[in-house]
Amino acid sequence: MQMRSGVLIALWLCLSLNEGLALLENEGETINRCIQNYGGLTAEIAERLERFKDWSDGYEEIPCFTRCYLSGMFDFYSNLTGFNKAGIVEVFGSSVYEACRHKLEQPFQLGESSCKHAYEGFHCITNMENHPFTLIENMPNISPSAKSAMKDCLQIVHLDEWKKFVLFADYPVNEPIPCFTRCFVDKLHIFEEKTRLWKLEAMKQHLGVPAKGVRVGNCHRQRGKDRCATYYKQFTCYTLAD
């Protein structure tokens, strides 16, 4: 029973990171070996592992677990050399690596990868799943210029607002991050201020909307409570048009 539970914990850890990531053999043995000094896979330990993504950035709740787990499970990490850039990029993508670079790169003077280095690097990766930069990088039909514009616009937003970025996918009535749409639209020059009309061909080129053949005749007439809200309402109309 304990071995089976170990497999389930490993499965949860891996699938929460990347659905396409194949599990290595002997993951149950690896989990149990890494926690044997803490009494094995008790209910308390299992509960802690399930909260791995919520652990504090600088505090590993099960000391040295991550270093042991990674070295026994994945090719992208070694106790001697730390994280392998090519391996991280292959599994999680370049945007995740760049976002966590400061945690993943090993300071030369440290020698072998430490428990702290392993934990902070991997913990950063696990929390990149819904990071705005990761979501932007994975958007289909979006030009590199549009992705850069969106990232630039996030830089001027308070970090506390970044967690709301994921809400854009549901197209709520009110813009999750006020004025974000206006910001990246202005950077892409796809709205003509003088005529108050959208440059639809440029919009299609950069953002992949509106779709061909949809009815968008009334989108430019949408109005919000202010200019930013109007940008958002009109752009949402073009995006959802059928």
TrEMBL record:
The keyword Glycoprotein does not apply. One of its GO terms (molecular function) is odorant binding. Residues 1-22 form the signal peptide. It is found in: Secreted. Keywords: Disulfide bond, Secreted, Signal. GO terms for cellular component: extracellular space. The keyword Cell inner membrane does not apply. GO terms for biological process: sensory perception of smell. InterPro entries: PBP/GOBP, PBP_GOBP_sf. SMART domains: PhBP. SUPFAM superfamilies: Insect pheromone/odorant-binding proteins. Belongs to the PBP/GOBP family. PANTHER family: GEO07291P1-RELATED (PTHR11857:SF43), ODORANT BINDING PROTEIN-RELATED (PTHR11857). This is GG13108. It comes from Drosophila erecta. The gene is Dere\GG13108.
